[in-house]
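Box 3.1 A note on notation
Throughout this textbook, protein chains are presented in two layers. The first layer is the amino acid sequence; the second is a token string describing backbone geometry. Keep the layers aligned when reading.
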Amino acid sequence: MTETASGSVARGGKRPRKGLKMKRIFTTPGVHPYDEIQWERRDVVMTNWRDGSINFEQRGVEFPDFWSVNAANIVTTKYFRGAVGTPQREWSLKQLIDRVVGVYTKTGIEHGYFASDEDAEIFDHELKHALAHQVFAFNSPVWFNVGTQSPQQVSACFILSVDDTMESILEWYKEEGVIFKGGSGSGVNLSRIRSSKELLSSGGTASGPVSFMRGADASAGTIKSGGATRRAAKMVVLDVDHPDIEEFIETKAREEDKIRALRDAGFDMDLGGKDIVSVQYQNANNSVRVSDEFMRAVEKGGDFGLRARLTGEVIEKVDAKNLFRKMAKAAWECADPGLQYDDTINDWHTTPETGRITASNPCSEYVHLDNSSCNLASINLLKFLKDDNSFNVADFVKLTELIITAMDISIVFADFPTEKIGETTRAYRQLGIGYANLGALLMATGHAYDSDGGRAVAGAITSLMTGVSYRRSAELAGVVGPYDGYARNAEPHKRVMRKHAAANDDLRTVGTMDAKIHAEASRQWSECLKLGERNGYRNAQASLLAPTGTIGLMMDCDTTGIEPDLALVKFKKLVGGGSMQIVNQTIPRALKQLGYQQEQIEAIVEYIAEHGHVVDAPGLRQEHYEVFDCAMGERAIAPMGHVRMMAATQSFLSGAISKTVNLPESATIDDIEQVYLEGWRLGLKALAVYRDNCKVGQPLSAGDGAKKQEQKAEQAAEPEVKVVEVNRPTRRRMPNQRPSMTTRFTVGGAKGYMTASSYPDDGLGEVFLKMSKQGSTLAGVMDAFSVAISIGLQYGVPLETYMSKFVNMRFEPAGMTDDPDIRMATSVMDYIFRRLALDHLPYEERAALGIFSAAERAAQQRGEDPAALQETVDREALAQSAPIESAAAQPKAEEELPVVKQELTLESHQRFTADAPLCMTCGTKMRPAGSCYVCEGCGSTSGCS
């Protein structure tokens, strides 16, 4: 633990100075931390998902040998500064870390943070060691900006404000645009704006906040498409007692209905499609700010008053249960709105004398004053798990002190997007320390995520982290002074500290691991209260749990933020390109911790590699299944399990938690109501839900939904049986010689061949597939499938019918392909019929199915008409000129492929990511990170850093 010094003699007989005495954690005196690392050179080459061309290339970059290929690629492409190919371009992780840490250390020295030059050197070395070893990471803006010629923006989270004047509304548009331009996101509460049921001073009727949301949404979409590679991230909040609350609740659900209608009419409504821009309100997350009064009315039943914005008088009464039901129904339909529990948030507010907390950042983890910002940093928890599976409490305490010190220093030199945000942040110095890899830590130590033991470990770690953070903040206040707004908020701030300490006292431990962490947390809170009483606090806020999207990948974390493991099998990028699928490395460690022998571990891991889950794994006891439960898959964690984990940590956090509670597609509106109620009862500050596949994904066929509705209507109106004579189909046999084309493909690492033969005049008539050695089960199945499809085609079954049945079918193998037109496939069948559609269907029919070639997607991006392309015609012409093959043509014997081990892919078990967005940078399907999405291919996020 570090200490404060107020009169010690500095090295070399210099004048005594007040400052922090730093102690070493990981480094050795006289040895630079870089000298203890084995460094290696690598090449980073990124290809364009649309056409396979190279869109980034930097060779000879330098990273530690233990950094993964993915982490090195993300840092190189996203965080290295300078034009590629110039001497100014950064090429080593050393340069990046030196650029950032150098500014922190220099600023700390200049502003009296350290007791001596030696302490400054220890700070410098420890920070460099921790960053190079992936022990923690600052949020993305730090890596983008610190030490460059750009403004030194360090914050990722912003909260704005808007008043009931046109000038304020237009200023909101401007401020939001500036923040989006810089690649960050913001949140705002629109409840001060008069409703559409109130009068203006001129005598007219007000437009209401929802109408002004249209302009802000259009602005966000325009700025995003005007050059940014990430979508604009924003949060819009409305209080539950606002007269326009029902319109706000149903806004996005109505737009989702519009998307479906336009899709079924043949419009391109896919992400990035040319017609999706006609749909409104898609650039924001919406949340309703609910009060305890409203939630009690929901529980007991009764009316709830909606109040005029200027006078506060009740102008309308609504049934609370009905209004709550509408919230749950809208969330069931489109995942919006989420809920923010206003009274809970403000009960834990450290600076209420300055103003209430009314809004949050886009992912809901930062909740504090209007016109403020927060810089984030996250700890890699798995780095503190010792070989004996105990948690290194002492090092965790020291690292937390180090991070809080660095984060507070950053506010000294930081720049901000608006003057108002800069003033508030410098006056209140909000910080957001958090962690990642909790799910991996729990699994590795044999704790089920949804268990009393897992929650006890999470709660103890979170309590310790926040207790150390505020204790360090009190120490900093003794060295460089408390935050400017502390004097007027001293009593409420100390009240909240006592609430945290009391929550820590109430924490009930289950095992040895959490008991030791909790004991240290209790000691830290005791010291925190004593120092805070004497010195005050340097920071109005200290901790929260962010989604850790890009920086989680930078740290090679298996799990992000507070999330559990996503799946038991994941992709690993390889040096030189490509990827392989591996069983998560925490699984063997967990099995060892649970007492299994090496032979048993190997058998279980092999089973998981093949099946993707642990059910019926050889030798694995059923009582241990829960340890390996994940966010999705065969044994997905129940929705309330996620809520309980959030509740286990919320009382130990200054802010809130970025996390979405995922529900299966079969979940009902009642289920969502129950989640929202339990979130309030358990003391959460904010909560969002997502029902699997509730949003519009790729269409199966144009007008398919409408046709089904028509059929149902006809059946209902005409129940009597009608006898209809139909002509029996006749088979149109293929000639002995026919034009054909053979395609070699790879799907999720599995290789195969497809030979597609056409009638000489026109039309596909035969398909043969080969994916294994002759005589194998897989070869037999593929032969039988090929015959069935071929006969169907020859009897006149339209190719479009097969498309509607097999496109988007999900099973093993699945994942990345080697086809530039089809970068991802959910199965071999999905790939096969997408390829057949591209080769044999005209553009108009494929567009209705959402199937486009790389050239067509590129044309869409350029704003051109893809229908003008003649790619399909060229392919058919090529097929016509190809050598005539027999119907039985197959690859030669020497080309026969070995049986490919059909390992489970991550994508095949991402149920609710079937409609997740594709990355706008590299085209890979993104995965959840808190309430946002992150691309594991390039590190891009949907709004969270």
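The first helix runs from residue 69 to 78. Residues 240 and 290 are 5 Å apart (CA to CA).
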